[in-house]
Amino acid sequence: MSEKIKSGPGRTETRDTVLEVRNVEVTYEMGRGRARVLDDIDVAIERGETLGIVGESGSGKSMFASSLMHAVQDPGVLNGEIVYHPEDGDSVNLLDLSTRKLKAIRWEEIAIVYQGAMNAFNPTLTIGRHFTETFEAHDVDPDSGLERARDIIKDLNLDPDRLLEAYSHELSGGEKQRALIALGLVFDPEVLILDEPTAAMDLLTQRYILEMLYEIKEEYDLTLVFISHDMPIIAGFADRIAVMYSFEFVEFGNAREVLLQPEHPYTRLLLGATLDLETPLEATHTIEGSPPDPVNVPLGCSFAPRCPISADRCEAEDPELRAEDTTHEVACFFPNRSVEEIGINTADQRRRD
Amino acid sequence: MSSDTDETLLNLDDISVHYADESAIMEVIPDSVKARFDWEEQPVRAVDGVSLDVGENDVVALVGESGSGKTTLGKAAVGLEEVTDGEVRYRGTDFWELKENGQIDGTSFQQARKALQIVHQDPSAALNPYRTIMATLTDPLKRWYPDLTAVDRRERILSLFDECGLTPPREYEDRYPHELSGGEKQRVTLVRAMLAEPDLILADEPVSALDVSLRVELMDLMITLQQRFETSFLFVTHDLKHARYIAGKTGGRIAVMYLGEIVEIGPAEEVIRNPKHPYTQILKWATLPSHPDDAQKAIQATSPLRKRDIPDPVDPPSGCRFHTRCPKAREACVDESPEQYSESGDSHKAACFREIPDHQYWQSEHLNEDGEIMIPE
Question: Residues A39-49: pLDDT tens digits?
Fold first, then answer.
């Protein structure tokens, strides 16, 4: 891969989209109504960038991840377009592909490391068996596949002989997570989606996984979609950030801008509720109320019922956000009032203290 | 042993908790066979020689990795885990002796049991899914206060709902656990603990499973309850940020655990700002800053630990238990273990030779990555 795009924090010099999400929504028919669990998302993911997706549980982060591979489980219905632009070759809309062709793109071009490393492996099979089954499913010769797998495992600072022979209960949480990452990398994908890769881990294990992911990204020339509820992790990794609330993007843009000059009231309040070791304890706030029920999302802005600056317009009209060609965008009618009236200690102020 | 033990709410005196390593296979092998082949089981030394006092209206946050023994220490403190060695004293009376005798010098076992409550990490597992919240909460009240009428019981529960942010209270009484959010469930388990009017609550990772914004909310609730009812809290967490928040806001202490020992203890903000033990320094290093520039730099930095994985507590390292991973370890740390302090007052202490200016540590050689002594060139 010769034309590697160096993305400094936040900005790609040349636009080179690898994955494009257009008007994507996911709905579920539920007994008590229709639940929209992804609401009109538009985003162009650039080759080589790390896109951070931050939001609380139930905000639609994992649904967004599944959508990127067109892997939403039944009875969920995905509408819109997911266009993959390979480095060489023709662009394809994942929704137009046959099952066979889709299978080839999933894992080989776009891979995902799902949340919950602890339970991802079949306890009755060795880790090596999981690798060979993956190769067989993709018509790859297991021997040559395993050879590549061994190199990746070594890059992840694990002993391939030991790992491939082991059963999942013989591995620590960090080792299991690394095995899963290795499994995601075996076909040299363009895009790697990481869904809460460090959830439920000890502090030191977490740091180790992050350090390794950083190295892996450079070494394997990956585009990362990094999903987490943990602001500092996203702050450390992402070039661009999408903040999700109630199944949609409410703020999107260059990571430093979103984190240092947040404009959406939700982003501001979420940052104000983020703990670290520097901020004075009194400066930490909570967010009143709770997110809406997916069956019963408010007509206007979905954050309006909890928003300290909401006005009549917010209840009647839904603010839009187009996250395609911009460095910073926000789905709010009153970004200036938000900045003025919702006082938080921004990270810059925290650092000065 | 200090002379004012009678005054102390809870006094852990040099306690150890060792578990036999009961693998399924060892359980079915007869003892005679084990003895013949010398298959003596090595105990897991979950807690090893820890002393800690918890006073009235006191908050201690126990921090450490998994396997550090923090939960075991917490459970031993509230009498849910029997100690192998040492004494757990509730208001001066040995808890386990009290259990055996039922009553000692006017203190009954029932009283001690009621005074020490627990809030579990996973509220879903802690609530019976087939019973309404009211039914689940009525049981402990009947046990602790048999004289209360049904009307009084309901009133007490509803008023605690109100205190714990389950409002309006009447809407919650007939609900089943699955009709509650994660945060609400954890509030219910707090109500259950508070119903006993305890002196101390062990909160075992109570917010780890919750969302970021809910974490602060729930910790704020615990802080409010602590201040309003003067309940002491032992707060177990793997996250230094949570320890700082809850202990910092209540004027409490942070105790850092490593492989069954407390390696550092002190007032929250002091331990965070000026960590003395190299292990605490590493926990601080591992906590990402929230500024994107700092966080980015931090993620690219290499770990200062000499070894990644925590050693097996069945066979902890000789000398200082942290010496196999410590970036500052020297020859002196390999054989000699730094003295564990006996706990008193509010001072800030670390079990590390670096705290002793004239210790031979300072003259001894550094250790390399493999734990070998580095020969100076």
Answer: 999 999 999 99
B303, B305, B307, B313 alpha-carbon torsion, rounded to 10°: -130
DSSP state letters, B128-164:
-TTS-HHHHHHHHHHHH-TT--HHHHHHHHHHHHHHT
**Please, which residues bridge with residue A51 across strands?**
A225, A240
* CB nearest A351 (choices: B248, B287, B294): B294
| ipTM, interface predicted TM-score of the complex | 0.87
Contacts of A232 in chain B (CB under 8 A): 288-290, 295
Q: How does pLDDT run across A279-323, given as a tens digit for each residue?
A: 889 888 888 888 888 888 888 999 999 999 999 999 999 998 865
Cβ within 8 Å, pair B292-A281: no
Q: Which residues, in sequence order, are CB contacts of B111 under 8 Å at separation 6+?
A: none
Long-range contacts of B346-350 (CB under 8 A, 24+ apart): B346/B253, B346/B266, B346/B267, B347/B266, B348/B264, B348/B265, B348/B266, B348/B267, B348/B270, B348/B271, B348/B274, B348/B276, B349/B264, B349/B265, B349/B266, B349/B276, B350/B263, B350/B264, B350/B276, B350/B277, B350/B280
Nearest CA in chain B to A229: B212
Of the candidates A154, A220, A174, the one whose C-alpha atom is nearest the C-alpha of residue A164 is: A154
A92-93 and B43-54 beta bridge pairing: unpaired
The reply to whether residue B299 touches residue A259, judged by beta carbons under 8 angstroms, is: no
- A270: which chain B residues are within 8 Å (Cβ-Cβ)? 212-213
Taking the Cβ of residue A261 and every Cβ of chain B, the question of whether any pair is shorter than 8 Å is answered with no
Min Cα distance B260 → chain A (Å) is: 16
Q: B36: how many CB neighbours lie within 10 A of its CB?
A: 9
> How near does any CA of chain B get to the CA of A181, in Å?
18
- State the smallest CA–CA distance between residue B214 and chain A in angstroms: 7
A15 interface with B at CB cutoff 8 Å: no
Q: How far is B240 from chain A (nearest CA, A)?
A: 8
Q: Quick one: angle between helices A203-220 and B278-286, nearest 10?
A: 50
